[in-house]
């Protein structure tokens, strides 16, 4: 290869749990599970919980059964997004080209940087910088392609680092179990093992034509990857195209007042996020899932705005049109799309300077004390955990202003 690539794969270790531990040091060293109620699934779990068999996407009831002593946390997606943006900013300011594969996973193309200083040394310094600025543990794998970087990262987690030297790709993959190869899910792994293919070395020795007959067009890609070949480029990070949130209720409901109060809370939550990112939306989409899992959506295009009262009016109208079956509702979701960058523009017909000033003051308070520090009264339903959090925020706010 005339110009060998240098690709680093970075993965924040048990990201949601690590963020929670930054907020509460008492969670260090104990089993922690981040997820919804009994009807939800595990969003993340600590390595201590994984020893009991707990895994991401596992039903919460099963996770509780496997690890009854685990500390359960519902999670705070605002905080997770905040820390993800912080790490993204550190990486963006340090590397020439990066790809954000998920909220906690990154690739960076460091090709050519070895001409000026050692790529391995740069990666160590980048990890140190991320840990210093975010407080979060991170693992990385440095290799000649994305495939090797990801596999290597998974092998040395948590809080590890590794370099797979150029020319050793096939030898590195050879002894690993076949299910550790990306693209090989549980079903494919079972199929291969039934054929006696237990390691990537054996997989790499199968003629490509045989894999194509067995797995279709994916067989060709899998054959190349088993030999350590991956030409997939690092795709430059593209800014998000939507802002959304959804709520799966602990109990199915057909209480319209309850649905409206949750809708208010959700609109205010992502409306604040919209303004925080200095964006406006031109389309509101509402999603409703009934107890029989039938899911319906409806959207409405609007003049670009970031004002809660306008978004609430649109969302409420969509809810009235969408909820046309007298059945129990399981889930409610809202999504803003057609996003544009820019501050809110005053409408000569709808807004006043006082209204714009009010939003500025509201957002200032929410930025200081959190999104729950101020919400509309119509967004507070009957006593629950969220209401208690609202009361706590209100008390903190009162004490802050007294001092």
TrEMBL record:
Mg(2+) binds at residues 11, 104. GO terms for biological process: DNA repair; DNA-templated DNA replication; error-prone translesion synthesis; SOS response. GO terms for cellular component: cytosol. PROSITE patterns: UMUC (PS50173). InterPro entries: DNA/RNA_pol_sf (IPR043502), DNA_pol_Y-fam_lit_finger_sf (IPR036775), DNA_pol_Y-fam_little_finger (IPR017961), DNA_polymerase-Y (IPR050116), DNApol_IV (IPR022880), Rev_trsase/Diguanyl_cyclase (IPR043128), UmuC (IPR001126). Its EC number is 2.7.7.7. The active site is at 105. It catalyses: DNA(n) + a 2'-deoxyribonucleoside 5'-triphosphate = DNA(n+1) + diphosphate. It holds the Pfam family IMS. The record marks 16 as: Substrate discrimination. Residues 7-185 form the UmuC domain. Its cofactor is Mg(2+). It is found in: Cytoplasm. Keywords: Cytoplasm, DNA damage, DNA repair, DNA replication, DNA-binding, DNA-directed DNA polymerase, Magnesium, Metal-binding, Mutator protein, Nucleotidyltransferase, Transferase. Its main location: cytoplasm. Binds 2 magnesium ions per subunit. GO terms for molecular function: damaged DNA binding; DNA-directed DNA polymerase activity; magnesium ion binding. Poorly processive, error-prone DNA polymerase involved in untargeted mutagenesis. Copies undamaged DNA at stalled replication forks, which arise in vivo from mismatched or misaligned primer ends. These misaligned primers can be extended by PolIV. Exhibits no 3'-5' exonuclease (proofreading) activity. May be involved in translesional synthesis, in conjunction with the beta clamp from PolIII. Belongs to the DNA polymerase type-Y family. Monomer. This is DNA polymerase IV. It comes from Arachidicoccus ginsenosidivorans. The gene is dinB.
């Amino acid at each position: 290869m005339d110009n060998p690539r240098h690709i680093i794969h970075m993965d924040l270790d048990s990201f949601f749990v690590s963020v929670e531990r930054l907020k509460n040091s008492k969670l260090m060293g104990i089993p922690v599970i981040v997820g919804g109620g009994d009807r939800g699934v595990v969003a993340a779990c600590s390595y201590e919980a994984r020893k009991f068999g707990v895994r991401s996407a596992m039903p919460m009831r099963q996770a509780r059964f496997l690890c009854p002593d685990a500390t359960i946390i519902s999670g705070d997606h605002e905080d997770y997004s905040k820390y993800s943006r912080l790490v993204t900013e550190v990486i963006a300011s340090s590397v020439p080209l990066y790809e954000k594969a998920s909220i906690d996973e990154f690739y960076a193309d460091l090709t050519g940087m070895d001409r000026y200083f050692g790529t391995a040394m740069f990666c160590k310094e980048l990890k140190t910088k991320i840990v210093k600025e975010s407080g979060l543990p991170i693992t990385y794998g440095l290799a000649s392609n994305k495939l090797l970087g990801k596999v290597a990262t998974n092998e040395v987690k948590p809080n590890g680092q590794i370099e797979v030297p150029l020319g050793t790709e096939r030898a590195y993959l050879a002894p690993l179990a076949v299910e550790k190869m990306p693209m090989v899910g549980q079903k494919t792994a079972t199929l291969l093992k039934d054929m006696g293919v237990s390691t990537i070395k054996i997989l790499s020795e199968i003629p490509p034509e045989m894999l194509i007959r067995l797995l279709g067009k994916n067989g060709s890609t899998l054959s190349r990857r088993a030999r350590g070949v991956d030409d997939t480029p690092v795709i430059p990070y593209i800014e998000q195209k939507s802002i959304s949130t959804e709520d799966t209720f602990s109990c199915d409901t057909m209480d319209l007042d309850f649905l409206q109060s949750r809708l208010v809370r959700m609109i205010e939550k992502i409306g604040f996020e919209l303004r925080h990112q200095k964006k406006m939306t031109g389309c509101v989409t509402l999603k409703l899932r009934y107890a029989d899992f039938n899911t319906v959506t409806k959207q409405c295009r609007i003049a670009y705005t970031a004002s809660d009262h306008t978004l609430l009016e649109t969302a409420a109208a969509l809810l009235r049109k969408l909820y046309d079956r007298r059945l129990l509702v399981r889930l409610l979701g809202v999504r803003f799309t057609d996003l544009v960058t820019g501050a809110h523009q005053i409408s000569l017909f709808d807004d006043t300077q006082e209204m714009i000033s009010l939003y500025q003051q509201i957002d200032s308070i929410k930025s200081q004390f959190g999104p729950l520090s101020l919400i509309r009264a119509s967004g507070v339903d009957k006593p629950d955990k969220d209401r208690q959090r609202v009361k706590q925020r209100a008390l903190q706010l009162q004490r802050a202003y007294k001092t």
